[in-house]
Amino acid sequence: MESEIDAVFHDWFAKSRALLPADADEEKSLAHFYKQMRRVRYLPCDLDAALKRASTLPLPDIAGLDTNTLKVAALMRELQGEAGEKPFICPVNVIVRFVPLRFTEQARRILFVLEESRVIECVDRGAPHMPGKPGKPTVWRYMKTPSLTKTKTCRARFAGVGAVTRLRRRAIRATTATARKRPISMSCELKLKRPRGGGEGDSRSERSTGTRQRAPENFMRKRGVNVTQVAPMHAREPVG
Questions:
Q1: pTM over cut 0.85
Q2: Sign of the dihedral through C-alpha 54, 57, 61, 64
Q3: How do residues 66-100 score in pLDDT, each as one tens digit?
Q4: In this structure, what DSSP letter does residue 130 have?
Q5: How far apart are CA 138 and CA 89, in angstroms?
């Protein structure tokens, strides 16, 4: 890599010799070239790729921010992807053309909102161009890096749990309301299932209806009443 850079710089220095100062030294110029290379965050092709992805991919899911601010946040996200672990720069005029905006002050305002919302972090504050003193761009770092797939999965999961909970509550409320309106039947005639194979003393009518004549006695026996001391209902004498 360095040998290629040295070869390209040597070719450039040889062709630009007539335009350079008379005391220009190739070794010192190469050292200064390597120093300036550290300030390069990305190439124009990388910026174009980041702009294309930011305009086509979904916007970050950040509550409380308007659409223009989310567009800038998406651009910051893609620029951070190009820079990797290193911070990056994002010129204000790039933001103005990307959103688009009318004034550069609008872009600065959006950057201020993103910084206050902890979406981006200022690593090195820039300075404007002054007479006799060149300015420098602000260096940023994108802080919000949520996984889009994970966010959608969690949102769908919580939505499903909420839907099931709402359905259960509706079912409970409907059952409770129906039970309150419906009178409770206290009939002594209990319908019992006929055992497999039948039993002795079961008539055809009992087997067909599944009802036994001694059902009231069975009901009283379950309640702890001694049925031997109580005369059968059909054997009681009428009162009066």
A1: no
A2: positive
A3: 999 999 999 999 999 988 888 899 989 999 999 99
A4: B
A5: 6
